[in-house]
Automatic annotation (TrEMBL):
PANTHER family: NADPH-DEPENDENT ALDEHYDE REDUCTASE-LIKE PROTEIN, CHLOROPLASTIC-RELATED (PTHR48107), RE15974P (PTHR48107:SF7). Keywords: NADP, Oxidoreductase. Transmembrane segments: none annotated. Pfam families: adh_short_C2. The keyword Transmembrane does not apply. Belongs to the short-chain dehydrogenases/reductases (SDR) family. Gene3D superfamilies: NAD(P)-binding Rossmann-like Domain. GO terms for molecular function: oxidoreductase activity, acting on CH-OH group of donors. This is NAD(P)-binding protein. InterPro entries: NAD(P)-bd_dom_sf, Sc_DH/Rdtase_CS, SDR_fam. SUPFAM superfamilies: NAD(P)-binding Rossmann-fold domains.
Length: 251
């Protein structure tokens, strides 16, 4: 069996469930040692780690840390180096998704979105980049809604933060690319996760499903395969790109 990421270490923020957990499992299946990050759900993180460690491929540990805090970021990086001695792949998946029009969004909610979705990835990359060597991979998460003219009015804060991620990707690819570190963003469409389903009636889920050519929404594993490609040596010439993974929802 081939392990294209054997010997590499990956840190995946927000990886105790949903897309993050699928990414952690896939990178480990490809041979990477993985840090599974969580904020409060220790049992979910332990379940992901246990499944990885029983399945062969890379090893996994879990680390509790809130990436919205500098102390949490430093703890994540310290534990990664202590356990695996290196950092090759950084996947910035942790995010919040709230809803509200400009009349409804409070200053506190605005700050929460930008602190978690923009400032945390910025500070994590700033702290992690000096630890990464040539061939390193940084993978951020955006959304296909930044390209979708039918974006709902109540996605204001979420889409604004993901637009910032798109622009960070373009600039960081130039900056860190000079060191042989690639920076790319995955921009999913609707993916069947708890966060996506939260607060949505089934009629709205069906609406999104019917907006896709295949009349369904995507699955976390369909995102993790693209992350695994970007993390591999095969993606050495892919840099500064925003890859929409949405089944044709937005083209």
């Amino acid at each position: 069996m081939s392990f294209p990421l054997a010997g590499k270490a990956a840190l995946v923020t927000g990886s105790s469930r949903s897309i993050g957990a699928a990414i952690a499992r896939r990178l480990a299946a490809d041979g990477a040692n993985v840090v599974v990050n969580y904020v409060s759900n220790a049992s979910a993180a332990a379940s992901v780690v246990d499944a990885i460690n029983k399945s062969g491929g890379g090893r996994a540990i879990s680390v509790q840390a809130d990436v919205a805090e500098k102390e949490g970021i430093q703890r994540l990086l310290d534990e990664t180096l202590r356990e695996f001695g290196r950092l090759d792949i950084l996947v910035l998946n942790a995010a919040v998704m709230g809803y509200g029009t400009i009349a409804e969004v409070t200053e506190e909610e605005f700050d929460r979105h930008f602190n978690v979705n923009v400032k945390a990835p910025f500070l994590t990359i700033k702290a992690a980049a000096p630890l990464m060597k040539e061939g390193g991979r940084i993978i951020l998460f955006g959304t296909s809604l930044t390209r979708n003219s039918a974006v709902p009015a109540n996605y204001l804060c979420y889409v604004a933060t993901k637009g910032a991620i798109d622009q960070m990707t373009r600039v960081l690819a130039k900056d860190l690319g000079a060191r042989g570190i690639t920076v790319n963003t995955i921009a999913p469409g609707p993916i069947d996760t708890d966060m996506f389903r939260e607060g949505k009636p089934q009629s709205l889920i069906d609406f999104f499903s019917n907006a896709h050519p295949q009349k369904r929404i995507g699955q976390p594993d369909e995102v993790s395969t693209v992350v695994a490609f970007l993390a591999s040596d095969q993606a050495s010439w892919v840099n500064g790109q925003i890859l929409m993974v949405n089944g044709g929802y937005t083209v």
